[in-house]
Structures are given as structure tokens and as C-alpha cells.
Design a protein that fits this description.
The chain has 259 residues and is α/β, with parallel strands linked by helices. It has six helices and six strands; from the N terminus they run βαβααβαβαββα. The longest helix is centred in the N-terminal third of the chain and has 15 residues. The chain starts with a strand and ends in a 44-residue tail after the last helix.
Length: 259
Amino acid sequence: MKTLIVHAHPEPKSLNGSLKDLAVSTLEGAGHEVRVSDLYAMNWKAVVDAADYGLDASRPLRVARDSGRAFDAGTLTPDVRAEQEKLLWADTIIFQFPLWWYTMPAILKGWVDRVFTFHFAYGVGEHSDTKYGERFGEGTLKGKKALLSVTVGGLESHYSARGINGPLEDLLFPIHHGILYYPGIEVLPPFVLFGTDRMTAQDYPDVAKAWEQRLLTLESTGPVAFRQQNGGDYELPSLRLKEGLEPAGVSGFGLHVRR
């Protein structure tokens, strides 16, 4: 298995840094190939601008169109091309990050904004009355798997169905479904550590054991059963779930997962 780890935390000695290092040693020890994109260590540029597209940038800037033209021409900046090549190389992508303000750190969102360009991560495939492009289960990255490894400062009860922050699966849905599944990546259930602000060094051995066990079962873990856009469950071109397919009592994000 070839694994890309995209790591987003500014402190190498943080819990996230330790989990990243443990993932590398565990996977390599099991005979897998591993590459790491440590975004803070790379001084990753987190904002999209005209410089990403060079001579292919229009005035006014049109990010989607310009990024697709630069991708087609092979003129995206070297840092973006390198990350796209890593994604194409990998079988599995692990995203290691803390939950900050209910989502991923800005530097990681900036990685997505710049790397997931038009004609690479979206805007591919047939667009017609019967098929709305290759996305949500199809696309450039189909066949790959992704895992979010997320540290959360708050308690698990805060992120439950009746918790004040809402269910964590709802907070992660835009990443799972909207960023990863959109270009075809299968999404594995996340590895989440709650209450990390209260963790001590004495807690780490148990955390490390659980993380190692999860890493060693990546290949046998089934993905979240998101519905494919072009699999027959949605009306076209409205992309609304067909009547009668919703499980009893399910609404919102849950409609898009097969039960």
C-alpha cells in the first residue's frame, strides 16, 4: 500500500506531530510506502491567487477556469503539481489535523483550494442530461481511500446528537463528502480523539496503541457508504434524492449515506 500523509499542525512535538510520526513508522514497519506532506514545515502557501496560474491567469481572475487551463497546459506552480502527483501515486491518503473552529486548519483548506484544481479534482467527465460529470463516487481519484485523523479539544459528549456542537459526523461531512468523495475518493470512518486538551503523557500509550491498530487495518476497513451521484439514486439534472429512498426518520446529511 502506498500512503500519503497530509499533516497540518505548526508544532512538531504536538500530539498531531506524534500521531503523524507514529503513522510513518507503523506503516513503513508493515512494509508500506509512505510519503508525507508536512504543510507547516513546507511553508505551504495557503491562498489561491493569479501566481498559481502564471500566464494562464486571466484578468479578472477566474479561479476555476484558469486553474483548469493551467492544469491542462502543465503550467501550474511546481508545488501544486508535486502534490497532485502525490495524490495520483497514493492508494490511501491520511489527513492529520486538529479540529479548529469546527473544521480543518486554514493551511489545510488552502492545500485543498490550490491542489484540487479544475480538470483534476472536478470538472471531469461527461456533462449531459443523463450524467452530471464524474463526481461523488467517480472522478480522477476514484479507487483511492482517505482517512481523517482528527484531534478534538472538547469532550465527546459536546459532539453528540444532543451536544452543543452538533454531531461530529455532521461537522466532518463537508470534508468527507464535499472534498474527498466529490473527486471519487472512498472515505473511511475517521479516527477521532476527543478531550485532547486534557490529555497527559500518561494517556499517550493507549492512544498510540489504538492508532497503530487502526493503521494496520486500513486495507480491511470498509468505507462510508455514500450514494454515488450517477448510480441511480438521484434525479437528473436536479440532483435531488429520489422519493422513497430515504430511510425512515433520516434527514439532512444522512440522506446521502446508504443504510
